[in-house]
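Thread title: Can someone regenerate the structure for this chain?

I was given the following input by a collaborator and told the matching structure tokens would be attached. They weren't. Posting the sequence so someone can regenerate them.
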Amino acid sequence: MKILLYDSLGTITDAHWGKEQLALPQALAQLGHEVIVVTGDCKLKKVPEKFSLVTTGRTRLTLVSLASETLGLLEILRREKPDALICHRRIPATLVSFIERSVGLFSSRERRAGRGRPLLILRSDFISEPARSPSEIIETLLLAVHVRAFDRLIVQTSCQARKLRWLRVKSPAIWLLPWGYDSSVPNDIGVARISERLPIILLVGRVTRQKAIEVLIRAFSKIHCNLPGWRLSIAGPITDPPYKAELLELASHLSCEQLVSFTGWLPKEALDELYRSSSLFCQPSKYEASPLVRIEALLHGVPMVIADTGCSVEWKARGAETFPVGDDTALSEILEKLALHPDLRERMVRRGSHQNLMSWGAAAAELQSRLESAALS
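Best answer:
Regenerated them for you:
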């Protein structure tokens, strides 16, 4: 089967996130499929050397000019004639879908020969909670338009599936396929080491206002006097420098600036080590879709404290503690309780480590099964 994956690799120069973006197509290629990864939203003129090393054999990576993304994707579809098109970028992909349905990509001769159009699939990662602001209402309305342009919809969480059903999408068209993980990382690594970890509260993610890092700093400032030796470590690229400056000023105002550090972007090996040495993981974001960092924290055995967003009900079942979005008082109480009681942290890790996560290989096998069933129908 020839599969074309259309994704946004704007972070393609980031070795950590870039690897995750290419993990699924690589796993599909290992199952014998020919996979073409097409990327837009990228200013690169050529494929970086490190990606040529992982896109050999039955996997190819093609760059599409941002200025002509839709036309470029249409041309690749016409030339390659894949059996399935799996899209992550919604707006250009929706335009392509509407054009294909209205005009068609194949000649009448090809259609008579049995060469139908490709199965059009949207692999969408969106906020599953009810809309709370004008921008989220607009996002929901746009989503309702986008989803109707595709034959199937891949979602990562049960909450996203419920939102699509609320938008009148029929259940058979929804495929629940969670984010995969690197199967080389054992998922019980933290249990044996819980007492050996450093007194670090870790946040992993871009330094941007969506992540609500100020909530964590305020919460920590209320309890750090009761937790000697504990500190905050914020790991991730600084995408909003003015926001980082505000956070440093806030930490200084709250007299905890010496206990808050920003690592910036870290290579995977360094980030893995930071996960393994941290005692708590915190994600206080205002909103999330299906964040990959939660899977990483779970695999590395770090007890999780997360805001009540991003389908938190699934993560509570995996042992995470949750708190209302923006409530720094509730967060401080949870962090202090867990910091002072390592037995509670170990219980959280044991409850989470036995959850049946899906490796990228298993995710690819599940997707293959769904594609084959859809092709037969």
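The CA atoms of residues 263 and 375 lie 47 Å apart.
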